[in-house]
Amino acid sequence: MRPDYRRGMTRIAVLGAGKIGEALLAGLLAAGRSASDLIFTERHPERAADLTTRLGVEAADITAAVTKADVVVVAVKPQDIAPVLAELGAALRPGTLVVSLCAGLPTALFEGGLPAGTPVVRVMPNTPMLVGEAMSAVSAGAHATDEHLAVAEEMLGAVGRVVRVPESQQDAVTALSGSGPAYFFFLVEAMIDAGILLGLPRSVAADLIVQSAFGAARMLRDSDDHPVILREAVTSPAGTTIAAIRELERHGVRAALIAAIEAARDRSVELGRSMQRD
């Protein structure tokens, strides 16, 4: 029987209940999804039992989870995909939508190991999913339609914002927003260290920077102004900010950041190719 996505008559199986898998389950429950509409797999029995206790969602093995689901979310580590894909392919019902949250893995990899015609949607989320503020990019595989993309978007909308991109752009997305939170954490870490160098207690420096980062992010998201406009509003002539900006430019921070993101993109491409070879 073909799942009726339009009516929301779907049961979602999450294969892999690590941090991202758990965050998705919790977000779906918070958005009003019934626990009976969800099922998950987890290879560590103690963690599976804990999640069932806390979330009220049933745990099962891959075969049992997949045969009961209309949408299967694959949230395992990329290096663990081979055995999962083998079990998934053997149990998958015709018409079931497969949504991959596996970084770097192309839809063709899934399509090659699943029954012919299986719709696959590739997603690059990021760790702010843990606090309901993910940025997820979705791409359609060869057999996925706009309807399938809409199902994935609705599901991921429970844990943040979603954008559609061609799959050819997913490696760039991985480098920019998938790895992006780490760049911000790195910058905040450096700024806290600067505060300590200037004589502030670590706790005070952390409070100052974290709240400043939070406020700046809200301004970026809620304002229609370009980041340059927002930065210039803080940059007075001959003031402290322009002195700091001059040092950042002198040390090549902008060029280093661009190079870093390019390196992340290249690594994402390499990981995808290596998994296809394997």
From TrEMBL:
GO terms for biological process: L-proline biosynthetic process. Residues 167-271 form the Pyrroline-5-carboxylate reductase dimerisation domain. Pathway: Amino-acid biosynthesis; L-proline biosynthesis; L-proline from L-glutamate 5-semialdehyde: step 1/1. It is an enzyme of class 1 (oxidoreductase). Signal peptide: none annotated. The keyword Cytoplasm applies. One of its GO terms (cellular component) is cytoplasm. It comes from the Bacteria. GO terms for molecular function: pyrroline-5-carboxylate reductase activity. It catalyses: L-proline + NADP(+) = (S)-1-pyrroline-5-carboxylate + NADPH + 2 H(+); L-proline + NAD(+) = (S)-1-pyrroline-5-carboxylate + NADH + 2 H(+). It is found in: Cytoplasm. Catalyzes the reduction of 1-pyrroline-5-carboxylate (PCA) to L-proline. Belongs to the pyrroline-5-carboxylate reductase family. This is Pyrroline-5-carboxylate reductase. The gene is proC.
